[in-house]
Amino acid sequence: MRNDQGDLVAALDFGGTKIAGALVDAGGHLLARARRPTPATEDAATVMDAVAGVLAELGRSVHWSRVRAVGIGSAGPVDASRGTVSPVNVPGWRGFPLVAEVARAVGGLPVTLVGDGVAMTAAEHWRGAARGRANALCMVVSTGVGGGLVLGGRLNPGPTGNAGHIGHISVALDGDPCPCGGRGCVERLASGPNITRRALADGWRPEPGEEASAAAVAAAARAGDAIALASFARAAQALAAGIAATAALVEIEVAVIGGGVAQAGEVLFAPLRERLRDYAALSFTSAVEVLPARLGSDAGLVGAAAAAAERRGLWGPGAGR
After folding, report:
1. Using CA atoms, how far apart are residues 85 and 96, in angstroms rounded to an integer?
2. Which domain of life, per UniProt (predicted)?
């Protein structure tokens, strides 16, 4: 096992709007950064060219010689067992061999791929709200709803890198169809666009000149708008049901929630904690804590690095165990 504090990991955070990269050290510090917009509507080669451009920029850093591995947190679905990604919002990438392409671009360094929710989980377990917790669910509630699991003190990404994807647990058996092909999924009820969609359908309207968004619905809810409050309450109910189901399956002790929707604060967290009591009633589920995430927009990069470092025994919360 290596435990050289000078070792670095090159991290990539790939999404439908941006490709971020960084060199991350054993303290979770970002020593160099690079970023490009994702050419999401272009063909596979053009998208990969943008990824290669981020890596090339990182490669020009004076710190690159210390890089020992690469970690990727990607919008999904991902298949870590095959090293492929099929991001919903990047139609040119279907079963795209991202691990092999990145490995080629970085001269054969080992590459670890996880879903973006798992990357966020790795970050929050290593440096955030789940630090020191043996069993945790960490969630990203934003345009979609993703997540990841820490079990027995270690990140548990599952064989394909998608374990803990709470957004596609069905919590409304006769609910609306979800783009994933399921029905009544947590994401269909609790994501930012769906909070907004429901509020608009029930008669809420943004202020003049204001964009209709989950943030605008949250602002209206804080001002006491009944429709906005109801839309967040419904989202909170879906999240509570999903958290309770997860707790019953794997006995988590904490659920950490981040992402843009979590910025609503107590507009989301107060009804979520209240409804969790309705669903998590068993003795081994009733003590689950709900906490806001501590790491911000860098969580994907920090987590991708942590996942790769832990897997390679470099550093991280579970390295060397």
Report:
1. 5
2. Bacteria
